[in-house]
Design goal:
Low-confidence stretches of chain B: none
Structural class of chain A: alpha/beta
CATH topology of one domain in chain A: Amidase signature (AS) enzymes
Strand content of chain A: 5-15%
Structural class of chain B: mainly alpha
Mean pLDDT of chain B: 94
Oligomer: heterodimer
CATH superfamily of one domain in chain A: Amidase signature (AS) domain
Radius of gyration of chain A: 21 Å
Helix content of chain B: 25-40%
Largest sheet of chain A: 11 strands, mixed
Shape of chain B: flat
CATH class of one domain in chain A: Alpha Beta
Shape of chain A: globular
Low-confidence stretches of chain A: none
C-alpha cells in the first residue's frame, strides 16, 4: 500500500469510498506523521485519541453508505477556531487554559460532513503577524529549506501552522483565517493552495475575533480541487453571524477544470512595485501566459489606491483589534494577574497575557480611536477603504473577471530575520494581499514556481464578490501548468 | 503626528496595559514608526467620499427578541479565574 499521507484529499476520498483503506488507517498514518514532525512546531495540541474516535465513527457511517462529503478526512484546525472541550488559545498566554464550551460554526460544519480533527495548529498570537513568530508557543518551522542550507525559515503567518502542516503532509487540509493575508501569504511560502473567501461567505461565529470587518475563514490544501472541496463544507449562512451571507453554496469542485476561455484577466500596474525581485516579476508574467494559453484574455488595469491599502489597514485593523481584545480582562476567562484595585488587575493581566506585537497593535488602535484623533486617522482610513473598493468595482465593471498578482513580495525568509527593529518591515509582507481584505473580495493563492534558492513562490487571483468558482477554474489552470510542490523531508 | 512619552503612558492606561518606565522609549519608537507609515494617507483626496461601514452590501438580519438560550450558568463561569455561586469575582470596586 502506498503511504496514505501522499494522497490528495480527493484521492483519499476515492480510496475510502472504494474501501481501499479505512478512515482509521488514513487517520493513523497522519497521526504518525504528526508525531514525527514535532520539530516543525506546527501543532500546539495533538488530539490523536479524539481523531481515532472520529475516524471510527466515519468508518461506520461509510459502511452504512451515510458518509458525508468529508467522511474520514483528517484535518488540522487553526487554534483560532473554538473547538468544544478542546483547549483553544489563539496562541496567546492570556487564553492558555481556555476550553470552549461551544464549537465554531465552520468546524461544526466540517465535523458534520465527516471530517476528523488531528489537532490544533499554531498561529501568530491572535492572528497578528506574518511569520508565525509572535505565537506564545514559539515559531513554526517551514518544511521548505533553501537549497544547500539548513537555516530555519518561517512558514508565513498568521496561519503558519496550518500551512506548514499541509505542506509537510501532516494533514489533508487545514482551516485558516485571513485578515490581511494570513491564508494566502503562508500558502505561498509553503507551496500550497489557500483561499480567502468573500467577506461573509464563511461564518465568523466561534472564531477568536481580530478585526471583525476584515476577518474571514478559509481552507488550505495541496491542490486547487482539495481546496474547493473544503470550502464547500466550510461556507454557508449562519444565523449566529449577522455578517454571514444568506445565499446558496455552489459546488465549488465542479468549477475545477471548467474552461476559462474568454475570461478577462486584469494585470494591475500598481502591483509592479520598486525593488520587486526579478524572479517574482518573471513568475507573474509566466502565470499570465499560462492563463492566456488556456484562452483567457489579459488586460492591463489600474487600481490607483493600492499603495494606500497597507497604511489604511494598519489603522482599521488595530482599531478593531483594540475593541475586540478589550474582552480579555481577567474576569470571565483567561489568566488573571492580581493588582491593588480592579484597574491595576486589568493592567497587570493584559501586560502579562499579551505578547509585544499584540500590545503594540492594541495601543495603536486605542490611539487612533481616542478623542481628537478619530477623524484624522480612523475616519480617513475608512474613506480610503471606500476608494480601494471602488478601484476594484470599476475594474470589474469594465468586464474584468479576475485579477492576477504575485501573492507575496518575496519567498519565505529566515526565522528572526525580519521586523526586529522596525515593525513596518514585517507588515510589508502583506502588501499584495491586504487590498483584498479591505475590499471584502475573494482571493486564491496558488503555487506557481520556485525562486533561485529552490523555495516556492505563489500567485494570487482576486475575484469578483462571491466568484470563488471563477478563481478555482483559473487556479486549476495554473496548477496544471506549474505542477505541485513538495518539500524534501528532513524532519 | 508623533507621540511623546507622556502620550505613550496615557494610551497604555486607556488600553489597560501596564507599561514599565523602561519600556516607554522603545514603545514610543515603534508607535511613531507606525504613525509615520500611515501618515501617507494624508495625501489622499477623500473629499466627498463616504467612510466604509460595511464591506459587503447587506441588510442586517434581526432575530426575534426572545430568550433562546440560557440555564447554563455552570458553563458560563467554567473558564473564569475566580467565581463564587455562579458570580464572577473581581477586586472590590465599591468602597
Amino acid at each position: 500500500m502506498t503511504d496514505l499521507t501522499s494522497l490528495s484529499l480527493a484521492e483519499a476520498r476515492q480510496g475510502l469510498k472504494a474501501k481501499a483503506f479505512t478512515a482509521l488507517e488514513l487517520t493513523d498514518a497522519h497521526i504518525f506523521a504528526v508525531e514525527k514532525a514535532r520539530a516543525l512546531n506546527a501543532f500546539v495540541l495533538e488530539t490523536a485519541e479524539e481523531a481515532r474516535m472520529m475516524a471510527q465513527a466515519a468508518d461506520l457511517r461509510i459502511a452504512r453508505g451515510e458518509g458525508g462529503p468529508l467522511a474520514g478526512i483528517p484535518l488540522g484546525i487553526k487554534d483560532l477556531f473554538a473547538t468544544k472541550g478542546v483547549r483553544t488559545t489563539a496562541c496567546s498566554r492570556i487564553l492558555e487554559n481556555f476550553v470552549p464550551p461551544y464549537e465554531s460554526t465552520v468546524t461544526a460544519r466540517l465535523w458534520h460532513d465527516g471530517a476528523v480533527m488531528l489537532g490544533k495548529l499554531n498561529n501568530d498570537e491572535f492572528a497578528m503577524g506574518s511569520s508565525n513568530e509572535t505565537s506564545a508557543f514559539g515559531p513554526v518551522v517551514n518544511p521548505w529549506r533553501r537549497e544547500g542550507s539548513d537555516a530555519k525559515l518561517v512558514p508565513g503567518g498568521s496561519s503558519g501552522g496550518s500551512a506548514a502542516a499541509v505542506a509537510a503532509h501532516l494533514c489533508l487540509g487545514a482551516t485558516g483565517t485571513d485578515t490581511g493575508g494570513s491564508i494566502r501569504q503562508p500558502a505561498a511560502f509553503t507551496g500550497i493552495v489557500g483561499m480567502k473567501p468573500t467577506y461573509g461567505r464563511c461564518s465568523r461565529w466561534g472564531i477568536v475575533a481580530f478585526a471583525s470587518s476584515l476577518d474571514q475563514a478559509g481552507p488550505f490544501a495541496r491542490t486547487v480541487r482539495d481546496t474547493a472541496i473544503l470550502l464547500r463544507s466550510m461556507a454557508g449562512h449562519d444565523a449566529k453571524d449577522t455578517t454571514s451571507v444568506d445565499r446558496p453554496v455552489p459546488d465549488y469542485e465542479a468549477a475545477v477544470g471548467q474552461s476559462i476561455k474568454g475570461m478577462k484577466i486584469g494585470i494591475p500596474k500598481e502591483y509592479r512595485i520598486d525593488g520587486m525581485p526579478a524572479e517574482i516579476e518573471r513568475l507573474w508574467r509566466q502565470g499570465g501566459e499560462w492563463l492566456k494559453a488556456a484562452g483567457a484574455e489579459l488586460v492591463e488595469v489600474s487600481l490607483p489606491h493600492t499603495k494606500y491599502a497597507l497604511p489604511a489597514y494598519y489603522i482599521v485593523a488595530p482599531a478593531e483589534a483594540s475593541s475586540n481584545l478589550a474582552r480579555y480582562d481577567g474576569v470571565r476567562y483567561g489568566a488573571r494577574v492580581p493588582g491593588r484595585d480592579i484597574i491595576e488587575m486589568y493592567e497587570n493581566t493584559r501586560a502579562r497575557g499579551f505578547g509585544p506585537e499584540v500590545r503594540r497593535r492594541i495601543m495603536i488602535g486605542t490611539y487612533v480611536l481616542s478623542a481628537g484623533y478619530y477623524d484624522a486617522y480612523y475616519l480617513r482610513a475608512q474613506k480610503v477603504r471606500t476608494l480601494i473598493k471602488r478601484d476594484f468595482e470599476e475594474c470589474f465593471a469594465r468586464g474584468v473577471n479576475a485579477i492576477l498578482t504575485p501573492a507575496t513580495p518575496s519567498a519565505a525568509f529566515g526565522i528572526g530575520e525580519k521586523g526586529g527593529a522596525d515593525p513596518i518591515e514585517m507588515y510589508l509582507n502583506d502588501i499584495f494581499t491586504v487590498t483584498v481584505n479591505m475590499a471584502g473580495l475573494p482571493g486564491l493563492a496558488v503555487p506557481a514556481g520556485k525562486d533561485g534558492q529552490g523555495l516556492p513562490l505563489g500567485l494570487q487571483l482576486i475575484g469578483r464578490p462571491f466568484d470563488e468558482e471563477g478563481l478555482f477554474s483559473l487556479g486549476e489552470v495554473i496548477e496544471q501548468a506549474a505542477g505541485r510542490f513538495t518539500p524534501a523531508q528532513w524532519w | 503626528m508623533s507621540v511623546d512619552a507622556a502620550t505613550v503612558r496615557r494610551i497604555a492606561h486607556l488600553a489597560r496595559i501596564a507599561v514599565k518606565d523602561e519600556e516607554v522609549p522603545h514603545l514610543q519608537g515603534e508607535l511613531n514608526a507606525i504613525l509615520a507609515f500611515v501618515e501617507q494617507l494624508s495625501e489622499v483626496d477623500v473629499g466627498g467620499v463616504e467612510p466604509m461601514t460595511s464591506v459587503t452590501p447587506m441588510v442586517m438580519k434581526k432575530r426575534h427578541d426572545v430568550v433562546n438560550d440560557g440555564e447554563i450558568a455552570d458553563v458560563v463561569v467554567a473558564n473564569a479565574p475566580a467565581t463564587e455561586d455562579h458570580y464572577f469575582l473581581v477586586p472590590k470596586v465599591v468602597e
